[in-house]
Amino acid sequence: MKILLTAEQIAEMVGYLGARLSDDYRGKNPLLIGCLKGCVVFLADLVRVITVPHAIDFVRTSTYGKRQVTSGVVRAELFDVDVRGRHVVIVEDIVDTGLTLGYLTEALTKQEPLSLKICALLVKPGAYRAPVAIDYKGFDIPDDFVVGYGLDWGERYRYLPYVAVVDEQDD
Ligand code: IMP
Ligand code: MG
After folding, report:
1. Of the bound ligands, which one is closest to the alpha carbon of residue 151?
2. Closest atom, ligand 1, to C-alpha of 37
3. What is the pLDDT of residue 123?
4. What is the domain partition of the chain in residue ranges?
5. Residue 34 Cβ < 6 Å to ligand 1
6. What pLDDT was estimated at residue 65?
7. How far from the centroid of its chain's Cα atoms is residue 104's Cα?
8. For residue 131, what are the contacts with CB-CB under 8 A and spacing of at least 6?
9. What is the mean pLDDT of the segment spanning 90-105?
10. 93 lines ligand 1 (CB under 6 A)
11. Burial class, 46, CB count within 10 angstroms (exposed 0-12 / middle 13-18 / buried 19+)
């Protein structure tokens, strides 16, 4: 496994994103919606650097398929998330094809939020083909499969404090 982003680099980026969100959402009491499960570490750090009042909620998304293979079919459980009349920020750990975000954006837009923006810590090159704009973007990363800081490989490695690239020997 090779470290791609250290805990220090991540913390600095989270601080930067949190500062931007704090500036942009002053007085707006935004609703941050995290996409389970990968978002949990990022969201937990992000909310502690945002200095304006806000609320959090969660949705759960998955693409059918195992391990590193995505089938392209997105499934989302919206639980009882209610975004009507709220300023919403979707918080994602990583954007790969952008299919998940495209699906979620469409589903939440139907509920008529006041505004809808996207915050993603990691963005892969393929995301540029997606129909969604990432308003608050952390790192552009290469098209490798990464783990840690909430991201898993078959439910492994979510707990790592850094982001690393998995290789064959890790299986
Ligand atoms: P998308 O719909 O292709 O953008 O994929 C988004 C989801 O796939 C992310 O929310 C992750 O759960 C998962 N994913 C994509 N790339 C990686 C990766 O490199 N490591 C771990 N999970 C990934
Ligand atoms: Mg995810």
Report:
1. 1
2. 12
3. 95
4. 2-57+84-170
5. no
6. 53
7. 12
8. 98, 102
9. 91
10. yes
11. buried
Mean pLDDT in residue range 92-102: 90
pLDDT, tens digit, 9 for 90 and up, residues 115-132: 999 999 999 987 667 778
Residue 40: what are its φ and ψ, rounded to 5°? Answer: -60, -40
Fold type of domain 2-57+84-170 = Rossmann fold (3.40.50)
Mean pLDDT of 35-40: 94
> Ligand 1: does its nearest atom lie under 6 Å from the Cβ of 38?
yes
C-alpha 50 – ligand 1 centre gap (Å): 25
Cα separation, 158 vs 150, whole angstroms: 4
Catalytic residues: 96
Banded model confidence at residue 168, pLDDT cuts 50, 70, 90: confident
pLDDT at residue number 93: 96
What span, in angstroms and rounded, lies between the C-alpha atoms of 130 and 99? Answer: 7
Distances (CA, A) of 124 to 101, 121, 164: 13, 10, 14
Q: Check: pTM over 0.85? Answer yes or no.
A: yes
Q: Looking at ligand 1, which atom is closest to the CA of residue 144?
A: 19
CB of 63 closer than 6 angstroms to any ligand 1 atom = yes
pLDDT for res 38: 94
